[in-house]
């Protein structure tokens, strides 16, 4: 509907839809859609001259908006499905949909179910999403959580919109840090090699590498990485063992989180791509000499003063080189329209360099979107960034298990839990605990930092995952009780739509309007690369329904048609909550 209204309004005014900027107001009191075209046209004479001649002599933005409203009412068919169009000071044009449009949508939800809110706008388009990307030989810490679950949510959102999505876990399994590990393992062998033990060795390396000793140790670490890149058997054997041990732990965490990937290709997999590039004369023509004999790609034409270092002075490849080779591989294998890097904001310069280099080399034309989400970090309560080198990371598995334990305590204290079988209780506590962690993260803006606070991260009240899950459980409970009393909601799918076109209360109308806009919020989440959009929507919907539930006892309603309508509203809310949580990677809970 938004696209339809935007097209009708824009074409009638003689402008393109991108100039109209039709949006959903943050406050429902201001209608279903709003545009600031009058204010922008009054400030931009070139835009004003595109509008119908009859409105151009307006004295101020509000006067222009009022003239445009009259024009739209007279010259378009908007009033066939729009209840009213109003000019609002200082110059907005707000649009309200008719109730029958909102009610018709309730029937549509019944038909679409799991697919309500989905779209085919991504048909024949491919998106590659790079997410999680933990470093081998380091425990899965709280720092990896954001990339993992934001990336998975973006995957779900784009897939829901019809895109062919490829999720790639770009493992950090290559680089000088492995030279450091091999150096330490040769001098401090472990009796039993574990990820925790490897991480402690890495920390110990940086504790020992001080003063003159640092130069010596760093030299030997670089030498070991050079041997690893050259394929020296001893170095490769130690490296493979580190990868194998790490992957066992990672997969256990992914199972807990319910996260999956289409492929897991570490940095090491691009060694052959790099070798081919270094034999390509055209590619070599872009490399120039840097400090100490390093090979660099100059990016000043893109406004980036710091060049991309491709090869270090000792001939070993850099992290940037491997990411550049990765883009080369992805573009040629998948021909994507979008590549999303769900990586922390501390790598902003890195991705600016890599993206610019890919464009300079002619690999990524204007038709390919390269996007770095630049998510914020988890900080310690003191506001300090966690650091593996300093040994002050928070183990993610411990956080997840504590969240599940906390959820178990709350469920067990609930009266309704007494009737839930033990096997179901375990699943429910797991879904609530993991859901609490995910929602807490996703409800924050992607770019914001989050202070790691046990009390906040495990708060199961208010704007939280458990609150959304609880509301879904409430809708399910209402429908189950209605069924016991003989009210079968699915019968509404086949009844005369006119029966449902009752006089709506303000509360019913507000809920119906929120349900109507769900698909538009999903698209916005994709455009903004922001699962927070879905979180905000679900919280608003749940608040509306719970207030409605408290004010109108649904099953006690004496008017049978009104009761059936409210049950229908309840069912559709359940479907939308289910679909929204699915996009966030959170399970619904039918009983709490």
Question: Would you spell out the secondary-structure blueprint of this structure?
Answer:
Layout: H1 2-13, H2 17-20, E1 33-35, H3 37-43, H4 45-48, H5 61-75, E2 82-88, E3 92-97, H6 99-112, E4 126-130, H7 145-160, E5 164-168, H8 176-187, H9 195-208, H10 211-230, H11 233-257, H12 271-277, H13 281-284, E6 288-289, E7 295-297, E8 308-311, H14 319-334, E9 338-341, H15 348-360, E10 369-372, E11 378-379, H16 396-412, H17 422-442, E12 450-451, H18 454-457, H19 465-484, H20 497-500, H21 506-516, H22 518-527, H23 532-551, H24 560-584
Brief overview, please?
The protein is α/β, with parallel strands linked by helices and 592 residues long. Helices cover 53% and strands 8% of the residues. The chain folds into 3 domains: 96 residues, 2-Layer Sandwich (Gyrase A, domain 2), CATH 3.30.1360.70; 249 residues, Rossmann fold, CATH 3.40.50.620; 189 residues, Orthogonal Bundle (Isoleucyl-tRNA Synthetase, Domain 1).
Supply the number of helical segments: 24
Alpha-beta classification: alpha/beta
Give the overall shape.
flat
The stretches of 5 or more residues where confidence is low (pLDDT under 50) are none
Distance N to C terminus: 36 Å
Strand order of the largest sheet: 5-4-9-10
CATH class of the largest domain: Alpha Beta
Number of domain units: 3
Proportion of strand residues = 5-15%
- Gyration radius, rounded: 28 Å
The largest sheet, given as strand count, sense and whether it forms a barrel, is:
4 strands, parallel
As a percent range, the share of helical residues equals 40-55%
């Amino acid at each position: 509907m938004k696209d339809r209204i935007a097209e009708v309004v824009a074409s009638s005014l003689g402008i393109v839809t991108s100039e109209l900027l039709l949006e959903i107001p943050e406050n429902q009191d201001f209608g279903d859609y709003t545009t600031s075209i009058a204010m922008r046209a009054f400030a931009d004479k070139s835009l004003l001259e595109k509008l119908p001649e009859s409105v151009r002599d307006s004295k101020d933005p509000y006067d222009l908006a009022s003239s445009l409203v009259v024009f739209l009412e007279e010259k378009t068919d908007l009033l066939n499905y729009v209840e009213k169009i109003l000019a609002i000071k200082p110059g907005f044009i707000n649009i309200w949909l008719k109730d029958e449009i909102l009610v018709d949508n309730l029937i549509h939800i019944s038909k679409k179910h799991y697919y309500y809110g989905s779209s085919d706008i991504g048909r024949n388009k491919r998106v590659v999403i790079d997410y999680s990307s933990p470093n081998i030989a380091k425990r899965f810490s709280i720092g990896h959580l954001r990339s993992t679950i934001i990336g998975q949510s973006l995957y779900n959102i784009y897939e829901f919109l019809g895109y062919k999505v490829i999720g790639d876990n770009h493992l950090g399994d290559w680089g000088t840090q492995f030279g450091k590990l091999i150096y330490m393992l040769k001098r401090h062998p472990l009796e039993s090699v574990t990820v925790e033990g490897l991480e402690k060795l890495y920390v110990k390396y940086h504790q020992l590498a001080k003063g003159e000793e640092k130069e010596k140790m760093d030299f030997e670490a670089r030498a070991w990485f050079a041997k690893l890149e050259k394929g020296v058997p001893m170095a490769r054997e130690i490296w493979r063992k580190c990868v194998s041990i790490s992957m066992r732990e990672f997969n256990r965490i992914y199972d807990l989180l319910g996260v999956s990937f289409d492929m897991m290709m570490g940095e090491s997999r691009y060694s052959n791509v790099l070798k081919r590039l270094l034999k390509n004369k055209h590619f070599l023509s872009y490399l120039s000499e840097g400090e100490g004999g390093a090979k660099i790609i100059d990016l000043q034409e893109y406004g980036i003063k710091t060049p991309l270092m491709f090869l270090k002075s000792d001939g070993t490849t850099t992290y940037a080189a491997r990411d550049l080779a990765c883009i080369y591989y992805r573009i040629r294998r998948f021909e994507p329209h979008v590549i999303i890097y769900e990586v922390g904001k501390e790598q902003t310069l890195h991705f600016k360099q890599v993206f610019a280099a890919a464009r300079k080399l002619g690999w990524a034309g204007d038709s390919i979107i390269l996007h770095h989400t630049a998510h914020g970090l988890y900080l310690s309560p003191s506001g300090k960034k966690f650091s593996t080198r300093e040994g002050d990371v928070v183990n993610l598995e411990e956080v997840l298990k504590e969240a599940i334990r906390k959820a178990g305590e709350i469920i067990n204290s609930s009266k309704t839990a007494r009737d839930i079988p033990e096997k179901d209780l375990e699943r429910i506590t797991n879904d609530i605990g993991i859901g609490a962690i995910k929602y807490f993260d996703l409800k924050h803006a992607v770019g914001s930092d989050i202070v790691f606070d046990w009390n906040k991260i495990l708060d199961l009240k208010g704007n939280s995952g458990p609150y959304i899950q609880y509301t879904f459980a409430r809708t399910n409970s209402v429908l189950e009780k209605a069924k016991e009393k003989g009210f079968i909601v699915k019968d509404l799918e086949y009844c005369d739509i006119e029966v449902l076109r009752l006089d709506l209360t303000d509360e019913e109308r507000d809920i119906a309007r929120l349900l109507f806009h769900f698909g538009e919020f999903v698209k916005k989440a994709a455009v903004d690369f922001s699962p927070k959009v879905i979180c905000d929507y679900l919280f608003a919907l749940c608040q509306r329904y719970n207030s409605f539930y408290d004010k109108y006892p649904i099953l006690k309603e004496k008017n049978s048609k009104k009761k059936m309508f409210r049950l229908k509203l309840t069912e559709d809310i359940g479907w939308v909550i289910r679909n929204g949580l699915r996009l966030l990677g959170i399970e619904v809970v039918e009983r709490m």
